[in-house]
Design goal:
Blueprint lengths: L8 H31 L7 E7 L5 H8 L12 H9 L4 E9 L3 E8 L2 E5 L6 E4 L4 E3 L12 E3 L5 H11 L10 E6 L4 E6 L4 E6 L2 H21 L7 E5 L7 E4 L13
Parallel strand pairs: 1-3, 4-7, 7-8, 10-11
Antiparallel strand pairs: 2-3, 4-5, 5-6, 8-9, 9-10, 11-12
Helix pairs in contact: 4-5
Length: about 260
């Protein structure tokens, strides 16, 4: 049995040339098809379906505002760019954008849920339930009893966490924190709806909550000793190691002669 002879060189070159031509033809066909799809108006984005729990936006306004900023058709549209365009709309926290063949976009939006104001009075920033700061029209806030949180930039989540840790503690006294501030040096200060200002000291949310709980456990005994209610507290300083300093309305620690009692 004789071994098969290799194909002549000219035959092999012809086969290789044919293969290359086929590949080039396929590539050109693909490029032509892509170019045709990119130019064909059949694939222009004609409909945008907007879904989600929207309290401060509506689908008609969103489409009118965002559609002019979208470039490309079904195949060429940059989804990341489209998502950024929707997330630039006030109150929108997150947008998920998907194509729907042949000419649609499906957008699911998540709006910010404000839980507090952020920064000094007069600013237009809010904090959502995730501890993220966002800009919005304060006049569109649906509730008028949001607390105010303050602190260094980038610390909103920590301030919200501490606020949520101490807020339930005041329920037994029929009081609630209106403002919570974190200083640049790490000190916490809370203003109650009774007008009382409490210096809570430094520490984590757990440490501040523990210090606050100890204060609230004994403060009613102190106020009752002077015939006062909780709403008579002007200020308290919890930064002392073994106790706290308390100031009550109508109660003084000095007598008429100026000597301390």
């Amino acid at each position: 049995m004789s071994d098969s002879l290799p194909a002549p060189i000219d035959i092999r070159l012809m086969n290789l040339t044919t293969m290359i031509l086929v590949l080039v033809l396929c590539a050109l066909s693909i490029i032509a098809a892509v170019a045709w799809c990119a130019r064909n108006p059949v694939f222009d984005i004609r409909r945008i379906t907007v879904l989600g729990d929207m309290q401060h936006n509506n689908a008609v306004t969103l489409r009118a505002n965002v559609a002019p900023r979208l470039t490309g058709n079904f195949f060429t549209l940059d989804l990341a760019q489209a998502r950024a365009a929707f997330e630039a709309v006030p109150w929108v926290r997150r947008a998920v954008v998907r194509r729907e063949f042949p000419d649609r976009l499906r957008v699911v939006l998540e709006e910010h849920k404000p839980v507090a104001y952020w920064g000094p009075e007069g600013e237009s920033r809010l904090v959502n339930h995730m501890g993220e700061v966002f800009e919005a029209n304060i006049g569109e806030v649906e509730t008028d009893d949001l607390p105010r949180l303050m602190g260094p930039e980038g610390q909103a989540a920590a301030v919200l966490r501490t606020f949520e840790a101490i807020k339930p503690l005041f329920a037994s006294l029929d009081a609630a924190p209106d403002e919570l501030a974190l200083s640049g040096r790490g000190g916490w200060r809370v203003l109650l709806d009774t007008g009382a200002m409490l210096e809570l000291g430094r520490g984590t949310a757990e440490e501040v909550a523990g210090r606050t709980e100890r204060f609230l456990r004994t403060v009613t005994q102190v106020t009752s000793k002077y015939g006062r209610q909780i709403d008579s507290i002007e200020s308290a300083d919890l930064r002392h190691v073994d106790g706290y300093a308390l100031r009550l309305r109508g109660v003084t620690t000095t007598g008429a002669d100026g000597q301390k009692k």
